[in-house]
Amino acid sequence: MPGRKAVERAANSWHGEMGSTNESLPTNYNLDTIFAALEKSAFRSRFFLLPKERSYLNDKGLPLVLEHAADLIARRLAPAFPIKDGKQTPWRGHPVFIAQHATGTCCRGCLAKWHGLPKGQDLTAAEQHYVVRVIGRWLLEHMQDEATGNERLR
Q: What DSSP designation does 46 have?
């Protein structure tokens, strides 16, 4: 289990990478506002990492798991009309999948509802980076919960 300092180092390592695109997002993409809304959702707020996914995240580390997230987003979510949209994200098996359901980044419908990213057009590189940052923040918060001994209500 990583300590708080290790978790913060991991967060810093992915945060810079996610902001490396020249494209910019509108200013209304405020993660604090979006996470506050997600916490009010009975459905979204019930997600947590199971031992298998938590172990995978701890073993592989946040930077590598976020590389997986970037690849998954590019293949399964970025196209204007993803294959099996609305059903393309499994419910478990990888920490990114759980984070996607918890953050409303699991399908194009949820992206439109929770994040204002419209269906029917490819996600730009900046929008894909944004989605990975959302997933990364959720994973980081859950790593920090474990590192500090705080358990989220289930």
A: G
Give per-residue pLDDT as tens, 118-133: 999 999 999 999 999 9
To which residue do tokens 């009975």 refer? 42
CA distance 149 to 63: 22
Sign of the C-alpha dihedral computed for residues 129, 135, 141 and 147 taken in this order? negative
The dihedral through the CA atoms of 148, 69, 82, 118 has a sign that is positive
**Do residues 121 and 112 touch, judged by C-beta distance below 8 A?**
no
| Cα–Cα distance measured from residue 14 to residue 64, given in angstroms and rounded to the nearest whole number | 9
pLDDT on residue 90: 80
Is pTM, for the whole model, over 0.85? no
